[in-house]
Design a protein that fits this description.
By secondary structure, the chain is of the alpha+beta class. Helix content is 20%, strand content 27%. It has helices at 2-11, 55-62, 68-76, 146-154, 179-185, 188-196, 278-285, 304-313, 330-336, and strands at residues 26-29, 32-35, 38-45, 80-82, 85-86, 98-105, 110-111, 116-120, 124-129, 160-161, 170-176, 200-208, 216-219, 221-225, 230-234, 252-260, 264-271, 365-372, 375-378. The strands form 4 sheets. Strands 8, 9, 10, 11, 12, 13, 16, 17, 18 and 19 form a 10-stranded mixed beta sheet that branches. A 4-stranded antiparallel beta sheet has the order 3-6-4-5. Strands 1-2-7 form a 3-stranded antiparallel beta sheet, covered by helices on one side.
């Protein structure tokens, strides 16, 4: 058994951030884009609080996604190394040491929607970002990102996103094609222009209820709780002993109703500031949350997640063709296409990591336009923006 493991380890090709995504890295199944699992080297340098712990205790305490038994096996097999060398499970870590974790990496799936190129200029690229796909590598996502997909399917690199779009939000994404252009967009004066109104960004949202006909301006601080991943809206109140202090950051959003069918409304959203989940929490604050936003809807809303996912999958113009999409069990599809089952991996034989089944909705929130003096970039509307 030990000899077989050693032979397998010697034949593995390890990837790092220097290895770009390739077209054949993706598997499409039932409207979901998976990444073929691959071997990857994670590198970190020991923080001060890690010093004095055994290598196994360190990983068990800091990275709780796997069991202690896994980390013991990973250390003993050389999958976890210190300064490029295999150590024992009782090895005591010192501050600043280089620690490598050689991992069979499974990325979370995203919806199988194309990243549509809207406009290609010498120094700027604009695309239609699909919902559920993160913009750039972060957390468990590396290849299943807008930047990764554009590299794999269109050979476009390097790319530098110049504004944010949350993973579950769709719409216009502007990317610089050079570091110098990215620096230009990120200059502080340009950010000031956004908040002063010289540069405008516009979204549309599908919200619950009949939205007011007149323009609605919301001035409410936004306090983001990073631990919980949720924002709250705050306004000053006089409690008799003085005005309460606000923890959140100043935030302003302007809303105008586009249409309504009596049950839902399509609303134009213009954020004057750029706080985390600002549009979502401001719409909740005024009683018209995004109609499929499970994070900011009350618990009494039934089946909203299923409804939202179905609506996004119906947007076929940007979806992979049926010939690219398989059927049946995802793990079986992956095995047939040749991804290696790793004996140490805690996610194998499934394609997706534990906790991800591939069926995730996209928000009914869509970035439609960025504009400034003498320039404008726009994005087509999604199907859900048309009320029948």
């Amino acid at each position: 058994m030990k000899r077989e493991r050693e032979e397998m380890e010697s034949s593995i090709v390890w990837q790092s951030p220097a290895n770009p995504p390739q077209r054949h890295d993706y598997i499409f199944n039932n409207g979901v884009r998976y990444v073929r699992p691959y071997y990857f080297e994670f590198i970190s340098h020991a923080k001060k609080r890690w010093a004095g712990k055994t290598i196994v205790d360190l990983f068990t305490d800091e990275f709780k996604g796997r069991s202690r038994d896994y980390y013991v096996s990973a250390v003993e097999s050389g999958r976890i190394q210190v300064e490029g060398k295999t150590v024992s499970p009782s090895y005591i870590v010192q501050s600043s040491q280089k620690i490598s974790h050689f991992l069979h990496r499974h990325e979370p799936p995203v919806m199988a929607l194309d990243v549509l190129i809207l406009q290609k200029e010498p120094d700027v690229l604009t695309v239609y970002k699909p919902a559920s796909v993160p913009v750039h590598p972060c957390g468990q996502y590396r290849k299943n990102t807008v930047v990764g997909i554009l590299r794999a399917e269109h050979d476009l690199a390097p790319l530098f996103p110049i504004h944010r779009l949350d993973r579950l939000v769709s719409g216009l994404l502007i990317l610089a094609r050079s570091a110098s252009k990215a620096d230009f967009f990120r200059q502080q004066p340009l950010l000031f222009q956004i908040e002063s109104g010289v540069i405008e960004k516009k979204y549309i949202a599908k919200v619950r209820g009949v939205f007011p006909e007149d323009e609605k301006i919301v001035n409410a601080n936004v306090d983001f709780n990073a631990r919980e991943g949720i924002s709250t809206a705050e306004v000053s109140k006089d409690c008799g002993n003085g005005i309460t202090a606000l923890k959140g950051k100043v935030a302003c959003t302007k809303f105008i109703r586009i249409s309504t069918d009596g049950k839902h409304s399509i609303v134009s959203c213009r954020p004057i500031t750029g706080r985390t989940h600002q549009i979502r929490v401001h719409l909740q604050y005024i009683g018209h949350p995004i109609a499929n936003d499970t994070l900011y809807l009350s618990e009494s809303v039934d089946n909203v997640s299923t409804e939202g996912f179905r609506a996004n999958r119906e947007f076929r113009h940007f979806s992979k063709s049926d010939s690219d999409v398989g059927s049946g069990d995802a793990s079986k599809i992956g095995s047939e296409k040749g991804f290696t089952i790793d004996p140490l991996c805690t996610n194998c034989p499934d394609l997706a990591p534990k906790g991800y089944d591939g069926y995730e909705e996209g928000l009914w929130l869509h970035c439609v336009q960025y504009s400034g003096p003498g320039w404008v970039y726009e994005c087509p509307l999604p199907d859900w923006a048309i009320l029948s």
